[in-house]
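C-alpha cells please, single chain.
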Amino acid sequence: MLKGIDPLLSGDLLKVLDDMGHGDELVICDSNFPAYSTGRPIIRLGEVSSTRAVEAVLSVFPLDTFVPHPLGRMEVDADPSRTTTRSADVLAAAIAAEGRELEIAAIPRHDFYARAAKAYAVIHTLESEGYNNFILTKGVV
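Here you go.
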C-alpha cells in the first residue's frame, strides 16, 4: 500500500499509466465490452464501477488540453442523446479531477471499437450496465 495513491491503482496499472505519452488513449470498459478482442494490454479491476475506475485513474492521469474532447463515451443504441446512468458521474469526476469545464463526446459504437483497438491499454471493470465504456486521452503534467 502506498500513501496518497488510490488503492485501485496497482503497480501494473501505474506502470501502464506512467508509460503512456501525450495523446495516447486509455479505454475504461464495462463487463460486456470485448476487451480482449482489442489486442491491447488489459488490466482487470474487478467489481468496481466505471465511475470508480475513472476517479482512480484521474487521480494521477492528466487529460489532454489540446483536443476538444479528451473524454469520450460509447454511444447508446446509435443515439448520441441517450446516456447511461454512469456517464454524468464520469463527466463530473473528470471535471473535479481537472478543475476545468469538459464535455463528454458520444462515439458511435463501431468507431469506439476501432479507437479501442488502437488504444494504449484497456482497463476492464465488472460494471454490469452496458454501454459504460469510456476513452480518456492523456495530456501532459
